[in-house]
Write a structure and sequence with these properties.
3 helices, tt1808, chain A, two-stranded antiparallel ribbon, alpha+beta
Length: 190
């Protein structure tokens, strides 16, 4: 038997529906911190105090900036596709909240996704970024807690972002969805 005629092992990818059934059946406990990315159930890293603080500061700042025009969600699922349902630290979506009574937001509902990174920066800039790019999320940010930087990824094409910029905590940027609104990154950091 030649190598080409042998059946090579494959990875079993989970769908979002199967993932939800695992939760309902108790296979994944309600307190387990996991998310589904590209068909794989991924354990989420523990949140250190600086991660928690930056997440809360950024979320509160964005809620203030976007009051009445967008909904800011924290640690809530986004249904990207049949194999991915991450729980980003912050997502900015189309309001009102009742819009999501029967479903999680989907890519067409999303204005911005933010991951707060301390121990997971490389993962957030690669695996997570590719998942968001494949779903055509137009504005993806990773906030580096340790270096006080914000990575801005835009223009998703062929499963990756073609525009990648890095800003310091003293910089600012305008939101893609709301170009009249300027975000000062110092509002994200203590």
């Amino acid at each position: 038997m030649t190598l080409t005629s042998q059946k090579l092992p494959t990875t079993r990818l989970w769908t979002v529906d199967e993932y939800h059934r695992m939760v309902k059946a108790g296979i994944l406990g309600p307190d387990e911190r996991v998310e589904l990315i590209a068909g794989e159930v991924i354990s989420m890293a523990a949140k250190n105090p600086p991660h928690v603080l930056v997440g809360k500061l950024a979320s509160a700042y964005l809620e203030e900036l976007l009051k009445g025009i967008a909904l800011v969600r924290t640690q809530d699922p986004i249904h990207l596709d049949v194999h991915s349902e991450p729980e980003p630290d912050i997502s900015v979506v189309i309001p009102p909240p009742r819009r999501y009574a029967e479903r999680h937001p989907e890519p067409e509902d999303v204005y911005l996704i933010i991951e707060v990174s301390d121990a997971t920066l490389q993962y957030d800039l690669t695996i997570k970024a590719k998942a968001y790019a494949r779903a055509l999320i137009q504005d993806y940010w990773a906030v580096d807690v340790n270096e006080r930087k914000v990575y801005i990824y835009r223009k998703p094409i062929s499963g990756d972002y073609v525009q990648k910029d890095v800003f310091s905590d003293l910089s600012s940027i305008h939101l893609l969805a709301f170009p009249e609104i300027e975000v000062l990154f110092k509002g994200f950091f203590p």
